[in-house]
Every structure is written in structure tokens, then in C-alpha cells.
Amino acid sequence: MFVYNEFKNRLPNQNEALKGREKSIIITQNHYFKNNQIIAPFPKNFEKIIFGLGCFWGAERVFWQIDEVYTTAVGYSGGYTKNPTYEEVCSGQTGHAEVVLVVFDPKLIKLENLLKVFWESHDPTQGNRQGNDRGTQYRSSIYFYDNNQSEIINKSKEIFQNEINKFNYGRITTEVKKINDFYYAENYHQQYLIKVPNGYCGLSGCNVNYPINAWLKISAVVKNNLIKDKIMKVSSSLKTLRSRDRNCQIVRRRGRLYVINKKNPRMKARQG
After folding, report:
1. CA 146 from chain center: how many Å?
2. Same domain, 139 and 250
């Protein structure tokens, strides 16, 4: 058992953090509830997101109970120590948070729906604690994999902040940043509350609903931005084809981009 120290209340910098080790924890089991694998490779086009909302035992259960979620796993992220142990994370000297890896098919469930579950399942204003669980490893956190996820997360954070302001809650302290590394926790932590049904769960939300309908007002903006980015990239790739002849033009038909040439039809080309 580690003795209480200053790093339970503040994050260490890289020089202060424990160094860790090269050998990673070996995961020997599939998901206890869903029976899907919890380590990569995952099905093609599935997405991953990392959530931290206090003790990862109860946090993982929140997400594995969602039918559309493919799999979940608990681990450590957000800090410096390579391949940390649970005891090291509890010391506060790794900088890591206890987190849940959520793998999902975006055709079945959207990230904003998972974010609704995230915001409603804990109190994201408590800083380095969650309920009675105190320490930097219990901080609220989201670690994303790409810029699209980042935009969606930050918009949802703004929405939920507006909601909790109505009930006099403070500023959301959730750490939002791009994933650096995710380290799997020991096997006995995976799906812990299935193995120990009456085990500890300290999760408690704000009793404030995340208004998923509010997302409709911004999702169109996000979608339009993504479409514009895609069109610009494709247009750039077709630019060379267009430059082959001064009569070439780029047109959009039924969602696809084409290079057409009325005077020389052999110069035509299609996106994809």
C-alpha cells in the first residue's frame, strides 16, 4: 500500500513521474459480458474513444451495458509512466487516469450518444476526485483519436456546461486531449463488476440530463465542415487531371466529383 503523497492532489511532470517498464500487461481473455475481444485488431471502420469518469470498475459497466458498443476494456491513460501497474497509478506518480476504452460501430451508435452517457454518469466538475474517490487518477477525462472526435467532444462539453449552469454547478474540469498511449489494466480489473457483482462502484452523476436534441443544432455544422474538408481534398487530387486541358472542368453530380471536357470526352474522370 502506498503512503499518501502530494501527487494525489497534483499531476507530476514528466521528470517527476515513475519511469515504468518495457513489458506490457498480457491480456488473456475476451470480454466477460460481450465475449468480443478487448484488444486490437477490431472490426474495420469501428471507432475507439477513451473515457475517464472515476473508478474504472463502475465506469466500464456503464458502457458495456450499451448494446451497440462492441467492446470495452479498462486501463490507464493521460500520464507519462510506460506500462504502469495499478499500484503505481494509485500512487499518483504516473500522471495516468483510470479510464475505459470504448469500441463502437458508428453506424449503430454515434459518439454524441456515448457522450450523453459520459456526462450524465458522473460529476465532471470535481477536479481530481469523483465522489469519495480522491486522487488525480479519478479525474474526469476524454482522450480522442482524431480531429472529428475532438470537435464533437468540445461541442458536447459546451452543451453540458450550459445545462449544469442552470443548477448552479461549477466549471467542467474534464481533461480533453488527443490520446497518447492507452495501457491495459491487469486482467482482474477487466469487467470487474461481472466477476464481483457486489463490488465497489462510486459513480454518481449530477442528476442533469444531457439534451441530445441540442446536438441537432450543431451536428449539421460539424457535418458541413467535414464535407467541405473532403471536397477540398478531393478537388486538390483532381486538380492535376483538370490541368491537362484548358477545357477541363470539375463538376459535382449526385455527391461525386467529376472532371468533364465537352470538347474532348476522353479527358473525363470521376472521383473514387
Report:
1. 9
2. no
